[in-house]
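Task 17 of the worksheet. Students: predict the tertiary structure of the chain below and write it out as structure tokens. Keep your answer in the requested format; marks are given for formatting as well as content.
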Amino acid sequence: METIYSEKHRLRDAQTELYGGELVYPFERPSRMDYILDRLNTVKLGSITAPDPLDMVPVMAVHDAGYVAFLERAWPDWVAAGFKGEAIAANWPARRMAQTCPDHIDGQLGYYALAAETSITEGTWAAARAGAAVALTGARRIQDGARGCFALCRPPGHHAAFDMYGGYCFLNNAAIAAQNLRGAGLARIAVLDVDFHHGNGTQDIFYDRDDVLFVSLHGEPQQTFPYYLGYAAEIGIGAGVGYTLNLPMPPGTGFDAWRRALGTALDRVAEFGPDALIVSLGVDTFETDPISFFKLRSADFVTMGADIAQAALPTLFVMEGGYDITEIGVNTVNVLEGFLSR
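Model answer:
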């Protein structure tokens, strides 16, 4: 299986994350990719290829133009305002406040942020662009007939909504890839999100559409980020009714229960009958992940990959979360090897 990867992800090297009332070194860090690359090379999974130049057309088809312009100028505007640290949102248009984007960068951060943990740094925009290019190149491989491809994206993307960033995400790589496949003529695309955290951004982008199915297995949102989206009652609106399926699970969920939910998800994918499958691949369901509460073990990820392969669809894996740094490589590649074993 070919892996698409860009070294430009290292341009995003944030030093601060708001966590538990403290500013800590982010859980989402450049070294995550090093462990995955090392494992890919150890098992000789396949070639590792640089992405094609970024095509902004599918990006602009799933993201608000004002939001994209904000991401591009946020860091220079923050510096120009005289701030010394990394750009972190401190104000929001909360309930009963005007939903108007301010002129000042301090207000704009809160207007476009869905959470305060994610800072914007000097290299954030360039890294986000590179991540989107990785996903788009992977989508083209699927379009050209590949059975499977791995888009090793960083920063991740599934929390990035139509016009909001957060959860370490700025551009929604999986959604951009799905839109690109639709634009290339594929009639139906399914997005299967197996990250521990709900893919709120992907849901937001496709919530009123019937050409892209979104299915997510995740931690119960009453107990974990993103808290305000990912409930089972959310099934879509308008033309999209019935094309969102959320399968939230409680703290302590082990692989048996998780795998049953995956079976439900794959049944819905089969019913939908897509031309291709995009997997938002997070391995933060691992039992020792520091910001999650599922109990999957390394061997379970092999089974996960094999189960996904049974869908018998051209499949693009798009990297999302996973924060047990020392085990992320093994767990990620286990999914890919399990997929290839079928």
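Marker's comment: Strands lie at 2-4, 17-19, 22-24, 48-49, 148-151, 189-193, 212-219, 244-249, 276-281, 315-319. The CA atoms of residues 39 and 46 lie 11 Å apart.
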